[in-house]
Amino acid sequence: MGKRIFSGIQPTGAVHIGNYVGAIKQWVDLQHKYESFFCIVDYHAITIPYDPSDMQQRIFDAVVDNIAAGLDPEIATIFIQSHVPEHTELTWLFNSITPMGWLGRMTQFKEKSEQFKESVNVGLYDYPVLQAADILLYKAQVVPVGEDQVQHVELTRDIARKFNVTFGDTFPDPEAILGAAPRIMGLNDPTRKMSKSIPGSYVSLSDSPDEIRQSVMRAVTDVGPTPGGEMSPGTANLFMLLREFSPPETVQRFQDDYDRGAIRYSDLKKVLAEDMVAALAPIREAREKLLQQPETVREVLRRGAEKARGIARETVREVKERMGLG
Ligand code: AMP
Ligand code: TRP
After folding, report:
1. How many structural domains is the chain composed of?
2. Whose CA is nearest to atom 14 of ligand 2?
3. CB of 141 shorter than 6 A to ligand 1
4. 143 assigned to some structural domain
5. Structural domain includes residue 12
6. What is the per-residue pLDDT for 225?
7. Within this chain, do residues 114 and 234 fall inside the same structural domain, yes or no?
8. Per-residue pLDDT, 69
9. Do 301 and 71 touch, CB atoms closer than 8 A?
10. Residue 143 CA: which ligand is closest?
11. Are 170 and 88 part of one and the same domain?
12. Which candidate in 25, 33, 110, 112 is catalytic?
């Protein structure tokens, strides 16, 4: 069997350029190399406060954005997590071998418990075990993600090893792989990660050219002095985006200006904004078209869930047998 990829994205808001350059662009490349599974993880998304009345719309939009960005449903399996109940079943089985201490150490749990103080629930704590189940149900070895997910993939590896040692060799060692821009910072606050939950921090794949221009022109470049004359986080972030969206000559030109102390940030932002508008235009067009074809999208998801479920069912059967459950 060739290697498999698994990755997921939460339907918690607009898909943004951090998701795109940090994760989706890699998925689009890798889908040609490996058997690929991409999942809209709605069970993960309900661990923080949300509005049930627009959840279906957000799930649909996330699927559309990913296909518009280049995921090809003819090659990759695209599906919704809650359509495959084995994800929660394997989570429960893994819960019984996962020490609580491993979960208490998760950075994202600590951050989200701080951010959503009023609603820290058991699901939020258990979130990484559900993620391990996502990956291991398909025995995926390759997990392309942004930097914030590396710790969760390491935990997945620990769970896989613990299972193998306890119940016999069953799972491969999954490995996180990062792209060239694994951590894009917020445009309005480059000390924090670009995030769907921070308004003003992101450019989304559905933004109009004018919205893109506005967000880029407003990007913060300097947030006070930096140690040892290093590039400030905002400037480093703009250069990272420039490397993703502009040709190498453009990056070099601004790098030279920066090195000579002659850089004009407003010029850099103008060029970056136009290159971003141009790069995102085909995605926006594809998105508009797909929005007119909800039936096609639903069919992709139906087929995706069916394919995923066939594999997931077999893994759960094997795991239960090894655990003495039938
Ligand atoms: P999420 O939106 O949290 O479900 O993330 C989906 C994927 O995008 C994951 O692989 C994340 O690591 C990645 N990602 C999210 N935010 C960023 C960011 N600011 N920079 C780079 N990658 C990101
Ligand atoms: N937790 C991931 C995020 O917030 C999303 C995710 C869920 C995921 N299951 C996954 C990513 C499995 C990779 C593999 O971005």
Report:
1. 2
2. 7
3. no
4. yes
5. yes
6. 65
7. no
8. 98
9. no
10. 2
11. yes
12. 112
Query: What's residue 197's pLDDT?
Result: 86
Q: Give the three-state DSSP class for 6.
A: strand
pTM above 0.90, yes or no: yes
- The CATH number given to whatever domain includes residue 275 is 1.10.240.10
pLDDT at 276: 98
Q: Is 193 a catalytic residue?
A: yes
The candidate with the shortest Cα–Cα distance to 176, out of 158, 202, 164, is: 158
Residues of the chain with pLDDT under 50: none
167 and 239 part of one domain: no
Whether the CB-CB separation of 241 and 276 falls below 8 Å is answered with yes
300 and 80 Cβ atoms separated by less than 8 Å? no
**In 3D, which of 291, 143, 79 has the Cα closest to residue 205?**
291
List the domain range (segments joined by +) for residue 314: 4-183+293-322
Q: For residue 196, what are its two tokens?
A: 């769907």
Using the mean position of ligand 2's atoms as its centre, give its distance from the Cα of residue 144 in Å. Answer: 10
Beta strand 35-40 pairing with 4-9: parallel
Residue 125 burial (C-beta neighbours within 10 Å; 0-12, 13-18, 19+): middle
Residue 106 and residue 120 in one domain: yes
Dump pLDDT digits (tens) for 20-79.
999 999 999 999 999 999 999 999 999 999 999 999 999 999 999 999 999 999 999 999
Is the residue at 278 inside a domain? yes
Q: What is the average pLDDT value for the chain, to the nearest integer? A: 96
